[in-house]
Amino acid sequence: SIKACIFDLDGVVVDTAKYHYLAWKRLANELGFEFTEQHNERLKGVSRMRSLEILLEVGGISLPDNEMEKLASKKNAWYVEYIQKMTPSEILPGAKELLEELRSNGIKLSLGSASKNSPLILERIGLKNHFDAIVDGNSVTIAKPAPDIFLTAANKLGVEPEECVVFEDAEAGIEAAINAKMRTVGIGNPQILNRADVVVPNLKDFTYSKLVEIFKK
Ligand code: B16
Ligand code: MG
Question: Measured between alpha carbons, how far is 84 from 1 in angstroms, rounded to an integer?
């Protein structure tokens, strides 16, 4: 049976993609090219350095590693400036309620995010104490679709992968969960997340009893 739930951050608990977009766009413009919201879709769930590689590919630019490090830091400084201003009102519909309901039913909870900024974000939105474990880009650098982030979370919670449900909005994240042999709830477009066990538009109507019902066997 299900003993733990692992939540991705961006796209599941909050929409930080819009701040990533503002910062990446600013960088692209400074480098002399346009970066659209459609381009930004490709960066969701992907690590910071991989995101930069994709952005430079869009601009047709190739740079040595040390230059890339500098650009990634620059983007991150802008991004941090934006997320500093986040408030609990930016928690996505249903996320906080679901975390609280799961916990009161004895389900262990972990964050499973690629972001190195997740401590700051959780602090700003007031959800730091809602998780039993935090696994993010600071502790695990091998990016999704590798299963490492989620396996580390299961390990920290003291449960088996088969006892975990992962909530993810990105294709790479669903892949990572499948690679970890975990069950999955996709948040978003069922066409894109077609490998998830179930896909819902958001967490608004998702409950503990739905979780039990969907994953009863
Ligand atoms: P950072 P998630 C991911 O968060 C974002 O979706 C992705 O766009 C970002 O590049 C990545 O975190 C790294 O973020 O630059 O803050 O370390 O969806 O895994 O919660
Ligand atoms: Mg995500």
Answer: 39
Q: Strand 198-200 vs strand 4-7: parallel, antiparallel, or unpaired? A: unpaired
Q: What is the pLDDT of residue 122?
A: 98
Q: pTM, whole model, 2 decimals?
A: 0.95
Q: Which of 8, 136, 148, 169 is catalytic?
A: 8
Determine the distance separating the centroid of ligand 1 and the alpha carbon of 181, expressed in angstroms: 22
115 lines ligand 1 (CB under 6 A): yes
Would the CA dihedral through 87, 93, 22, 145 be positive or negative? Answer: positive
Is ligand 1 within 6 A of the CB of residue 40?
A: no
> Model confidence over 17-57: pLDDT tens digits?
999 999 999 999 999 999 999 999 889 888 999 999 999 99
Which atom in ligand 1 lies closest to the alpha carbon of residue 8?
20
Which ipTM did the prediction report? 0.94
> Is 8 annotated in the active site?
yes
Contact 45, 173 (CB under 8 A): yes
Cα(3)–Cα(155) distance, integer angstroms: 12
Q: Which residues of 31-45 are buried (b: 16+ CB within 10 A; e: fewer)?
A: eeeebeeebbeebbb
Nearest ligand (C-alpha, residue 49): 1
- The least confident of 45-49, 55-59, 65-69, 162-166 is 45-49
Ligand 1 close to Cβ of residue 47 (< 6 A) = yes
